[in-house]
Amino acid sequence: MGAGRASVTPDLTLRYAVIGDVGGHHQALRAELTRLGADPDSGTIPADLRIVQVGDLVHRGPDSRAVVALVDRFLTAAAPGWVQLVGNHEAQYLRAPTFKWHQRLDGETIAILRRWWGDGLMTVATVVPAGDADLLVTHAGLTEGFWRADLGQPASAVRAAEMLNMMGALGRTSIFRGGAMLGGSRSASAGPMWASASMELLPSWLGRRMPFGQIHGHSSAYDWQRECFRAAEAIAARTRLDHDCGHEITSFDGGEIVGIDPGHGAHVPHPWQAWVTSAA
To answer: Calcineurin-like phosphoesterase domain spans which residues (predicted)?
Structure first.
């Protein structure tokens, strides 16, 4: 894996838009990018905007190939304006598959994903600013156990992101460590590609002081289609919902964890938007 193009240190002069799981929905992604002021046809992004996508671009929806081609256009034309993170569905094509999925990407699309990973254009983590704090952004979130045992308790989001990206560059398998969502038992140290928000990520920080806040996709504590919480009452009581954007914000001692997975399946089920910061 190469050095990549984008620093994880946030630029306070920029707006950041963090886009949740796309799941093969090309038209929905184009519409959201257009709303943000980006041009899907030319691959250009406004100079004051940086886009972060949390991974799981592919599978579920009707056109994963077009989604990857669209993102490749932005990575080619607008780097470092686009920061692409790796999700567990992209990871299926970067290493030995860890689960069965009924859809399979075509060879050209797989080659693009592998090129991104090899060139460092697709990474594990980044950081975005939020007021006076920095938020770590990963696909599934950083569990307390992974932060403590695997990373050695870094005090800043920037340091945690640098360490996670180095683990990816070195091919450390722990970043792909599964838990409940890979058929195993619940784990407070599930990795940042696989941690379940309701069963692992959020419960792991109960009773602990968070060193920094986070943003993640992958899964959610709230079922947007059934309109009910998947998480235990202790989590639900700490969580506020943004129904217009499809975001959930769970408060802990020391920070918040923002979930932005819109829950796309074969169809886009409800309104959703990127999580957006304001420039200083």
So the answer is: 15-141
Which is it for strands 15-19 and 49-53: parallel, antiparallel or unpaired?
A: parallel
In this predicted structure, what is the pLDDT of residue 280?
58
Question: Alpha-carbon distance 141 to 25, whole Å?
Answer: 23
Domain boundaries, the chain: 15-276
Name the phi and psi angles at 98, rounded to 5. -110, -5
Q: Which two tokens stand for residue 107?
A: 């060879």
d(CA 192, CA 218): 10
What is the average pLDDT value for the chain, to the nearest integer? Answer: 94
The domain defined by 15-276 folds into Purple Acid Phosphatase; chain A, domain 2 (3.60.21)
Residue 35 CA, distance from chain mean position:
20
Determine the average pLDDT of the residues in 68-83.
94
Provide the residue count of the chain.
280
Q: Is 126 left (phi over 0), alpha (psi -120 to 50) or beta?
A: beta
d(Cα 277, Cα 18) in Å, to the nearest integer? 9
DSSP conformation class of 35? H
- What mean pLDDT comes out for the span 209-236? 96
Query: In terms of Cα–Cα distance, which of 192, 214, 202 is closest to 146?
Result: 192
Predicted confidence (pLDDT) per residue in 3-14, tens digit: 455 689 999 999
